[in-house]
Amino acid sequence: MKKIDKLLLTSSIGPFAVSFFIAVFVLVIQIMWLYIDEIAGKGVGILIMLELVGYMSVTVFPMALPIAVLIASVMVMGGLAERYELSSMKSAGIPLIRVMRTLIIIGACISVFSYVCSDFLIPIANLKFRSRLFDIRKAKPALTMEEGVFNEDFRQFVIRLGDKLPDGETIRDVMIEDQSNIGQVKFNQILADSGQMYTSADKRFFVMNLYDGVQYQEPGNQGPAPTQRKFPFIRTKFKSWSKVWDMREFELVRTDEDRLSQQRTMLNMGQLRANMDSLSLKIKDAGQMAVNDILVNVKRKPTPPVVPVDTSKLADKRIKDGLKGVEALKRASQSANSGPNLPVLEKNKPLDQYTSLLETFRDRDRSTLMKEAKTRHGLARNIVETRKNQVQARRLEWVKTGYELYNKYSFALVCFIFLFIGAPMGAIIRKGGFGYPILVSIIFFVTFVFLAILCRKLAEAYIMSPFWAAMMPCAILGVFGIYVTRKAMNDSQLFSIEPLERLMNQLRKRRNQKLEEQTT
Predict the structure, then answer these.
(1) Are residues 132 and 221 in the same domain?
(2) Contact predicate 103/12, CB 8 Å
(3) 134 and 60, same structural domain?
(4) Given this model, what pLDDT does residue 41 score?
(5) d(C-alpha 403, C-alpha 415), whole Å
(6) Pick from 233, 250, 267: which residue ends a domain?
(7) Residue-level pLDDT at 457
(8) Looking at the structure, do residues 90 and 156 belong to the same domain, yes or no?
(9) Inter-residue contact 127 to 255 (CB < 8 Å)
(10) Containing structural domain, residue 448
(11) 101-116 vs 3-39: helix axis angle to the nearest 10?
């Protein structure tokens, strides 16, 4: 390895690692902030929290890698330019692309790693994270007994503590309302002067021992309501009373991950392609299904699927069908008005004297025909609307699935593109450290995120295809990266106002010439 390559390698590892971990930390905190209300108060252990953080960290790798590449490349090349090392290399005849060769190789490796994460690691991490989050959502809040608060953590029991001593076990002025036998007992309440509460050694049971109390019970109806004349009420005094609750309802129950494995974010690229193919077939079949439903509505046979036909036999079949049709018309004309269910004309007159088809039927049949027509029209319209909604839903799902697929390629490609933006920008601004490099990196990363969101919305509005919606941000930034790289290689200004000044001077001269011609 040459010294210049070793210098670039050692200079880029530190900034990239620091930038990557900072980006992962910020993105994980952002995601945790969205779910903190669902996690807090559920008694989630430290191991479960670390597991969630680990899964979230893997899911944000595609977002953290581009910004880390961008910051590291700006810092490395900016530091070389600030210390005039880059100028020394150029004066020695080393072009900028040769200086960037090590960074280009690193960027390519990072792009491959991003692709591997998107295709293999992230679907598994998303599945694990969503399943654990679903378990936490279903879990009951952690058991907390506070003074003066009605606690409903235990199913069918309401507990209120008047006072709790500092030892955490001795309690006073206790009230328990038992709602477990609500059908047999209308009212069941226990009041006690003092008591003791604790959990068993294995943390599986919660025990409450009460002393010097009274239990009030009102039994349910003893007979039919109209004949009931007695309303019994039971009061029982006790010296001690014990109740044991099972703590397993507070435990975190693992969900079957297969229930969530078919969501888009849990699928790899091969599965996403298979879903797109199946959705395309469903969209194509939806139109034919709508036609078949309408034909069934009007009592006709649905259109069979198209199958290849022997062309040599097709002509003979058409001739036979034509002869059968002629014979059917003859039979129909002979028995036109003979059927008992067919409408019969009361007055015969030429067809050219009728203004509508409805006038050819008898007066008493017209209302029936109109009602039947309106009913079938409404059914056909409902069928069309239902199939239309199905097609739109499947089409939107196809777009989202396609965007999810091509977005994996986009995040891998942008890691390589950001290298050709960050390194030339660092050579142009000539600043290292965490000042200007981070500012420049944030500007370009926010631009990429803005373009990605905009293109995704355009794809969901069916204005762009999923492929171009995912690749358009990379294409735009790629063009800008080529432009910036050429500027840095030629040591020219990034944005020069000299052409604009020349244009303004020419316009000013032409205006002055016109004014002089008008005055003369």
Answers:
(1) no
(2) yes
(3) yes
(4) 60
(5) 18
(6) 250
(7) 92
(8) no
(9) no
(10) 3-139+407-489
(11) 30
Are residues 415 and 453 located together in one domain of the fold? yes
The token duo for 451 is 């373009």
DSSP run (H or E) holding 505: helix 498-519
Inside any domain, residue 397:
no
User: Are residues 15 and 134 both part of a single domain?
Assistant: yes
SS3 196: strand
Burial (Cβ within 10 Å: 0-12, 13-18, ≥19) of residue 427: buried
- Estimate to the nearest angstrom the gap between the alpha carbon of 377 and the chain centroid: 38
84: Cα within 13 Å, side-chain hemisphere: 2
336-370 per-position pLDDT tens digit: 444 444 454 555 566 666 666 666 667 667 777 77
DSSP state of 147: B
User: For the chain, how big is the Rg over CA atoms in Å?
Assistant: 39
Strand order of the β-sheet with 157-164 is 150-151, 157-164, 170-178, 185-199, 205-219, 234-246
357 domain residue, yes or no: no
User: How many domains does the chain fold into?
Assistant: 2
Judge whether 414 and 473 are in contact, CB under 8 Å.
Answer: yes
Cα angle 339-343-349, degrees, rounded to a multiple of 5: 115
Strand, helix or coil for residue 238: strand
Alpha-carbon span 421 to 428, nearest angstrom: 11
Choose among 445, 501, 508: nearest CA to 473. Answer: 445
Note the pLDDT of residue 379.
78
- Segments in the chain below pLDDT 50: 142, 302, 306-309, 311, 314, 326, 329, 332-333, 335-342, 344
**Looking at the structure, do residues 133 and 161 belong to the same domain, yes or no?**
no
Residue 190 in any domain: the answer is yes
- State residue 111's pLDDT score: 93
Q: What is the DSSP string of 71-123?
A: HHHHHHHHHHHHTTHHHHHHHTT--HHHHTHHHHHHHHHHHHHHHHIIIIIHH
Q: What phi, psi does 341 have (nearest 5°)?
A: -100, 0
Same domain membership, residue 183 and residue 103: no
Of 202, 218, 250, the residue at which a domain comes to its end is 250
Measured distance CA(212)–CA(236) in Å, rounded: 11
In angstroms, the CA 131 to CA 456 distance is 27
Which spans in 430-465 are helix H?
436-460
- Within-domain flag for 416: yes
Contact assessment for residue 8 and residue 99, using Cβ atoms and an 8 Å cutoff: yes
Say if residue 188 is in the same domain as residue 96: no
User: Which amino acid, 91?
Assistant: S
User: Which pLDDT value is given to residue 496?
Assistant: 58
Alpha-carbon span 42 to 507, nearest angstrom: 72
Tell me the two tokens of residue 276.
Answer: 């797109």
Tell me the pTM. 0.64
